[in-house]
Each structure stands twice: as structure tokens, then as C-alpha cells.
Amino acid sequence: ASASAIGDLVDDAKKVFGEEIPEEEFELVEISDVFRGFRHRHQHAEFTITVGRRRARLRIHRTALEEALENMLKNAQVHAWDDGIPERTFELDLVPEPARNQVQLIVRNSGRPFPDDMSEADYRRFARKVKSSSGSGVGGAWVDKCLKAHRGSLNIRRLGPTMGTEFIMTLPMEESQNG
């Protein structure tokens, strides 16, 4: 590995293991606003970002959640999309589940599905990656750290050979938000 790649891995390790996601920086945020801001930042990209119409307010650490979404997009760009994928899409949606006091944030990308030789647990581990990956294997660990800070969980669904992957992040709703 090059000195630059090693330096990047060290920086990523510092972020995952050294940086905290401070509880006092959490705020009540309209998640669809976060999604629309994400789409706006990537409006000139060579792929399509769609945002669902449902709304929910959650107490989140906005920066950490935005970084988790950026990581998922980067994973789609590196692992799911290649020249054989003509329609490159990244979809953001949410499904409020008031009866269960939770909200599902759903991230879907077109293209190759999540690798069969990688489990959800592998994705969440630091520096764990499939052999064909050029990445550092740190992104999933950051997503996991972000979800733990939000008392959330992650499920990954492979959608089919060219249909991509669905990442379902489940986050709790505040009691006062159920009405």
C-alpha cells in the first residue's frame, strides 16, 4: 500500500475510533430536509438522486448522518456502478412507523448488489472489505458508529443482479413526535 493510502486509513481510524458524536449536538430535524440538501449538493453529478415525499422529524446529529449518507453514495459509486450500469440512481426515502415508535431511512442504489461474500456484520467492522474492493473498509464502520449514536440499526437487502442494494436504517422516534 502506498504511503498516501496508509495515511488515509490512519485518518479514517482516528475518525471512527477517536471522534465522538456528541449528544449535545443532536437536534430535532426534518429528515426530508436533510435528504433534499444531500440531493442539492450532488445536483450536477452523473447519477440521479431521488427523494421520497414522506416526512418525519427526528432528533439526530445532522453532520454524522450526512456523512453516513455520503459514505453510502461513495460505496455505490465505487462498488455498484460501472460502465455496464446505464441508469445510476441513488434513492432516499423514509417510512415512519409511529406504532413501533421508529422511522426507517431507506437508501437504495442501482447497479451491482451488496457482495454475497460480505455480511452486514462485515460491513460494520473496521477495515473489513471484499478482496476486489479498492476502498479502505472504513465506511461501514462509520455508518455503524453513527447508527449506534442514534440508537439505530441497519439491515441490508440485496435487490438482484443489476437492481442494486437497499440499506434500511431504523431510528427511534422521540415520544413527543408520535402525534
Low-confidence stretches: 12-16
- Beta-strand portion reads 25-35%
Record the strand order, biggest sheet: 2-4-5-7-6
Structural class: alpha+beta
Q: Judging from the principal axes of the Cα atoms, what is the shape?
A: globular
Provide the helix percentage.
25-40%
The run of helices and strands is HEHEEHEEHHEE
Average pLDDT, all residues: 81
Rg calculated over all Cα atoms: 16 Å
* Largest sheet properties: 5 strands, mixed
Count of beta strands = 7
In DSSP terms (H or I, runs of 4 or more residues), the helix count works out at 5
Distance between the termini: 53 Å
Question: Mind explaining what this structure looks like?
Answer:
Helices cover 35% and strands 26% of the residues. It contains 5 helices and 7 strands, in the order H-E-H-E-E-H-E-E-H-H-E-E. It is globular. The model is unreliable at 12-16 (pLDDT under 50).
Attribute tags:
five-stranded mixed beta sheet, two-stranded antiparallel ribbon, 35% helix, alpha+beta, 179 residues, single chain, 26% strand
